[in-house]
């Protein structure tokens, strides 16, 4: 274990601490090291699957205590930020319900073993909660084809390699699947404590960080207006602008920061074309996005993406 931590650039006694704090880069390094050290290419699937509910953490137990699969995912999406610098994004589009993880503070693409773990964890919650062998419609992976049969057996569905994103896709009707593990009494005990921790966590965020997070949730083919964000915060546009100015920011600056973070995420963790990325970031065309990205990173997005891939392969 000490050799693994050393290779990841982490102190030898890190795991001996009561509370372990690492950056996203260090977390990725640790999981990348686990993947490289293991002789099992599907180690992430094993680590993301738990057979005994008594081994679940409070967040997972709270999710299992809810009424349905969809409610459980909403619960986890809310509370997950207490333990990891990630967002759980779930979206319904027609007959499909997709779930993916977004690491906004990441400089590199997420390790494959971590992707496997996250999706195995979602499936584990679904199967424990519904009491069935529910399987997704498919799992989409950016990576090239590898240990496909193992992945297909575990998830019970086709695996789409070389996809534009990492996502686990269920039927939209699965949102309403009832949980046999529903426990209102346990949820009433866990939720207030988690809500209090979440309130404290959000209280540590600066106002610009809260605004940026809301912008990122609304950046999906359109550019959020100041009044849209103000409405989400239950304040006026003028109040929003004043609070940002008090912190030394303008709304445009925070919007650009939000786009910059998301741009790095899309380029690192998907095969989206530049025009598709530009659309998701609310730009009118790819050229506008390229100009903005060059101003952030000093190089065009295609060159930056290639450099990141080469870095991971070293």
TrEMBL record:
The keyword Transmembrane helix does not apply. Pfam families: Arabinose_bd, HTH_18. GO terms for molecular function: DNA-binding transcription factor activity; transcription cis-regulatory region binding. Keywords: DNA-binding, Transcription, Transcription regulation. Residues 209-307 form the HTH araC/xylS-type domain. One of its GO terms (cellular component) is cytosol. This is AraC-like DNA-binding protein.
């Amino acid at each position: 274990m000490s050799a693994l931590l050393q290779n990841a650039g982490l102190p030898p006694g890190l795991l001996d601490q009561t509370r372990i704090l690492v950056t996203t880069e260090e977390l990725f390094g640790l999981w990348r090291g686990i993947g490289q050290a293991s002789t099992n290419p599907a180690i992430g699937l094993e680590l993301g699957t738990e057979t005994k509910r008594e081994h679940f953490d409070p967040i997972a137990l709270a999710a299992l205590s809810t009424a349905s699969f969809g409610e459980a995912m909403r619960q986890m999406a809310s509370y997950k930020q207490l333990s990891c610098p990630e967002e759980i994004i779930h979206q319904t589009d027609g007959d499909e319900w997709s779930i993916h993880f977004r690491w906004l503070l990441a400089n590199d693409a997420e390790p494959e073993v971590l992707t496997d773990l996250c999706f195995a964890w979602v499936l584990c919650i679904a199967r424990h909660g519904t009491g069935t062998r529910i399987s997704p419609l498919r799992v989409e992976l950016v990576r090239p084809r590898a240990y496909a049969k193992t992945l297909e057996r575990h998830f019970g569905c086709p695996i789409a390699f070389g996809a534009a994103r990492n996502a686990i896709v269920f039927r939209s009707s699965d949102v309403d699947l009832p949980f046999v593990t529903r426990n209102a009494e346990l949820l009433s005990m866990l939720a207030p404590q988690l809500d209090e921790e979440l309130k404290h966590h959000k209280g540590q965020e600066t106002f610009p960080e809260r605004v940026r997070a809301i912008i990122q949730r609304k950046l999906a083919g359109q550019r959020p207006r100041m009044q849209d964000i103000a409405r989400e915060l239950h304040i006026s546009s003028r109040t929003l602008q004043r609070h940002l100015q008090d912190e030394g920011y303008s709304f445009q600056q925070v919007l650009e920061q939000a786009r910059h973070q998301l741009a790095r995420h899309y380029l690192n963790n998907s095969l989206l074309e530049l025009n598709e990325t530009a659309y998701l970031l609310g730009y009118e065309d790819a050229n506008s996005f390229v100009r903005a990205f060059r101003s952030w990173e000093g190089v065009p997005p295609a060159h930056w993406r290639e450099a990141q891939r080469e870095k991971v392969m070293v």
